[in-house]
Amino acid sequence: MNKTEFISELAKRTDRPVTEMYKLVNDFLTLTTEVLEREEDILFVGFGRLSPRKQNARLVRNPKTGAPAMFYGRTTVSFKPGKDLLKTINRK
User: Which percentage of the chain shows pLDDT scores above 90?
Assistant: First the structure.
């Protein structure tokens, strides 16, 4: 499901206009990005936790050539699913 399909489904489920849901989703994503940029966790109880995680600079190898290369490090985002989410998606 892509962003447009998600917004359409959300609008259908909430009986709201697609334009309103588009703004809501974009505001949610913007706020999420800003909070992670400040290096703060976001916790949705039962759903999961988004956490910024630093990756240190290190020497790596180019998989095509085998030549050593420098990875300069960055911040990435990790997601740890909550119990309720795992329970729901693993129902049989």
Answer: 98
| H-only helix segments in 1-92 | 3-14, 18-37, 83-89
Span 22-34, pLDDT tens digits: 999 999 999 999 9
Q: Is the pLDDT of residue 92 over 90?
A: no
Q: In sequence order, what are the residues at sequence separation of 6 or more whose Cβ sits closer than 8 angstroms to the Cβ of residue 16?
A: 10
Output the DSSP codes for 39-65: T--EEETTTEEEEEEEE--EEEE-TTT
| Rounded distance between C-alpha atoms, residue 7 and residue 5, angstroms | 5
